[in-house]
Amino acid sequence: MTGLSPFAGRIIWALKLKGVEFESVEEDLTNKSDLLLQSNPVHQKIPVLIHNGKPRGKEGGEAALEEAHENLRILEKELEGKKFFGGESIGLVDVTFGSFAKLLDVLDEVMGSDKKMIDEDKFPLMGKWKEQLSELAVVKSCLPPADKLAAAVQARRNESAAA
């Protein structure tokens, strides 16, 4: 049931906090519905966002990258005059987003595209933020080696291509 999923739960919280109207559909993960299987055929997991009858995240790479850049523009503005999102010290947003920053760099490398997810030329504050974050001892001690992460990403990519 999605009510038990922290991943679905945090999306529901965010939508409610923002006042966004939505319909939440409970999903029995032991007996997956046709809707889930059609909406997320590769991973068959929740949450799945369906907007105007189409699962989000299924657009081509260019559209997905542009959407990501729109969101990064918002984050870039939030960093103006700050070292971290909350100010001078690391906070929840930094931890939440920062845990993905290394993965995004590795995805860029594995995908081999000249277009980067977090392009430091377009998003200089995000680039500086990533650098400052990665210099923190606690972050350094928790980051997986880039080559190990790249191998895992490539293996997942190969699995998806074979499915």
UniProtKB/TrEMBL annotation:
Location relative to the cell: Cytoplasm, Cytosol
Name assigned to this protein: Glutathione S-transferase
Annotated signal peptide: none
Species name: Linum tenue
InterPro entries, A to Z: Glutathione-S-Trfase_C-like (IPR010987), Glutathione-S-Trfase_C_sf (IPR036282), Glutathione_S-Trfase_N (IPR004045), GST_C_Tau (IPR045074), Omega/Tau-like (IPR045073), Thioredoxin-like_sf (IPR036249)
Keyword Transferase: yes
GO biological process, one term: glutathione metabolic process
EC supergroup of this enzyme: transferase
Summary of the function given for this chain in its UniProt record: Is involved in the conjugation of reduced glutathione to a wide number of exogenous and endogenous hydrophobic electrophiles.
Annotated ranges, domain GST N-terminal: 1-83
The organism's place on the tree of life at top rank: Eukaryota
One GO molecular-function entry: glutathione transferase activity
Lineage: Eukaryota, Viridiplantae, Streptophyta, Embryophyta, Tracheophyta
Catalytic activity from the UniProt record: RX + glutathione = an S-substituted glutathione + a halide anion + H(+)
